[in-house]
User: What shape does this take?
Amino acid sequence: MVRFMAFSIRRAWHGFWKNGLMSLAATATMVLVLVLLAGLIILVTGLNATLDYVQSEVQVVAYLKDSTTQQDVIALETTLQRMPQVTQVKFVSKAQAYQDFLARHPGEADVINSLPNNPLPASLQINLSDPSNYVDVATYLNSEPGVDHVMNIQQTVEQLNTVIGVLQTGGTVLLVIVGLIVLFIVVNTIRLAVVARADEIEIMRLVGASDAFIRWPFIIEGAMVGLFGAAITNVLLLLSQGPITGFMAEYFKVLPVEASATVGPTIGLIVLGAGVGIGVLGSFLSVRSYLIR
Assistant: This one.
């Protein structure tokens, strides 16, 4: 078995360099699809981190009427905290709302200070265990006489979900298309090698060589295409890790999400597995179609 594998590897190595131009084209295209794969993973990781953060920060904000008493507020807080959909309830007084507004909009200080009274209402900020629970909590709050109106950012989360879904679908479609192109190039690269050795293969068949004996060198040759493509891609990812990490950190700096480990061993292993897998599959399909004739 060891001698057979050594023989197959030598023949595969010889075939890889004998069809150098096609092997180079297959490897270059393999690098392209693997770079796209790694980029898609990095992008989706960042988008999912953003989505998880936004979803965790989804709040139902209930603005209270000025006539609502402290006892009414405490009773409302107690009821909300008992609801399974609610994880946290925070009361923001009129004075605190005023200070928060000035902190966010310092340029409007003169305008709001010119008013005879503080126009900002007190509110309750309710964190949810799941954004989809908004309807139940909002319905309850709207039925309370002490609540003036309810505001939420559920629509923002839904829009973000839509954007991420479109990007994920578009990236996957692009990846599949380029993957099929790579598979086509690998199949034809190996097929050219098979046709070039047609006489040799026929002689091997006449002397009793099995299909496996004929097939394995070509499969290993396809694996070499994938292996070289994955190696080049991983080197490119390693060299670009600094810029990628900096870009992700800058992109997500407004959110407390971790973006510094977007390029790592996991992506390297995925790239390696995908490259070798596509190469082996392309070789297998090519040789199989020839041997069943």
